[in-house]
Amino acid sequence: MFVEIDPRDKMHEECGVFGVYAPGSNVAQLAYFGLFALQHRGQESAGIAVSNGQTISCEKGRGLVAEVFRDTTKLERLQGHMAVGHVRYSSSRISLAMNAQPLLVRYRHGQLAIVLNGNLINGRRLRRQLEAGGSIFQGSTNSEVIAHLIARSGEGEITGAVQNALAYLKGAYAYILMTPDKMIGIRDPLGIRPLSLGKSSNGYVLASETCAFDIVGAKFVREIEPGEMVTIDENGLHSTRFASTQKQALCIFEFIYFARPDSDLHGRNVHMVRKRLGRQVAREHPIEADLVTGVPDSSLSAASGVAEQLGLPYEMGFVKNRYIGRTFIQPAPEIRSLGVRLKLNPVRQIVEGKRVVMVDDSIVRGPTSMRIIKMLRAAGATAVHLLITSPPIVAPCFYGIDTSSADQLIAARLTSEEIREQIGADSLGFLSEEGMLACMDLPPDSFCTACFNHRYPIKPEDGPDAY
Question: How far apart are the first and last CA of the chain?
Fold first, then answer.
């Protein structure tokens, strides 16, 4: 029996960015591998742009990295000494081919390629102002807004033009842009979106997560600081502060769900933090049961921590089907509606006749949890206890994460007991906000936790927006 998981019932990161400056290397191939490591951050589209010092060439399309570059001649055409790459998940649910990145534009000072992770909360207002001034937009991304702001700057040198544009931006963003001779990495003033710097034998690498460094043979150097702009060219690496802030607000869901377990953030390994989250939720909600299992893949680390804390065996209660086609390559709408869903299958021999503790990272809308619990009962589980390694999600995200509006967030409408009744669990335990923050072993104000408490580090302006 397979369970269909509605992708809207999960928090979704919108994209991953990657950049490499490495003269003498096959940078297109390095970008390709880097995007493979970041594929979990976005599966809607992928693309790579490469500069040879004179011109920038770009290949992109809708689909997974392997699908977009199935034709190997695409990579062969990308020759140069530096590259930027992008994997996208649309925070606006608008799937347009023209929104695939890198965004490659030509303006009065030459070519410019941009890859963006995040959302400008004033993006709509800036777009309206630019359109009123004569700017023409082809897609619905905030990357175009940034490109127009740079193009309209009176600065002739790219770093000055970028700094002028940054003065208008309000929101959460990490982006990399490339001219024929420079690569520039930028992180928002609060560091809501992650961006890290790595060093290879003959250059530098920028990536949303450190797991991308390992696959291309680069060593982690440091995280790009909030409000920092780094420029990489033939003269090396140069750092500039474009904003000064005493506060940081990394999205805490990077640790809970988004980032790969082998990535490091704030000097903490994601897998180890998730294990601590699991131990903590088990301490807060002790349960008598026979085994612990996690919902693949993000909850497996936390489930092992729950098992250790409860002194129960940790078992593989589910098998995930990893070979699922992309929704947009199916021709008929009724087929697309089936292909968009991830599928899990229970291992009957493990759960039959057992009291099962099921661990998951979050509940957004609720239907998926209800389906999985029904599936476990159908496979013979005598009880299903659900532990969630984050607090209840009660507020939407305005910074580029694809969450439902508040009226579709189940925890914004129902109490924990009402949620338990609706999804059919024998018990339900959410991790407390205090317990979650304690597991991070960092000052509590180091993170954005607005989806749990409405305390937005930047006041929302436009509402959820296309990035």
Answer: 38
Does residue 251 have an active-site annotation? no
Bridge partners (DSSP) listed for residue 59: 48
Task: Classify residue 88 as exposed, middle or buried by CB count within 10 Å of its CB (0-12, 13-18, 19+).
Answer: buried
Give the angle subtended at the CA of 175 by the CAs of 170 and 179, to the nearest 5°.
Answer: 120
What one-character DSSP code corresponds to residue 314? B
**Sequence spans of domains, the chain:** 9-255, 270-441
**Residue entry with tokens 């500069």:** 51
The topology (CATH level 3) of 9-255 is Glutamine Phosphoribosylpyrophosphate, subunit 1, domain 1 (3.60.20)
Q: Pick the catalytic residue: 15, 58, 397, 439? A: 15
CB atoms within 10 A of CB 459: 8
Q: What kind of fold does domain 270-441 have according to CATH?
A: Rossmann fold (3.40.50)
Beta bridge partners of 18: 85, 207
The model's pLDDT over 311-354, given as tens digits with 9 standing for 90+, comes to 999 999 988 876 654 433 344 444 443 433 457 889 999 999 99
Q: Which helix (H) or strand (E) holds 172?
A: strand 171-178
Q: What is the pTM of this model?
A: 0.90
pLDDT tens digits, 136-170 = 888 888 999 999 999 998 888 999 999 999 999 99
The whole-angstrom separation of Cα 386 and Cα 359 is 6
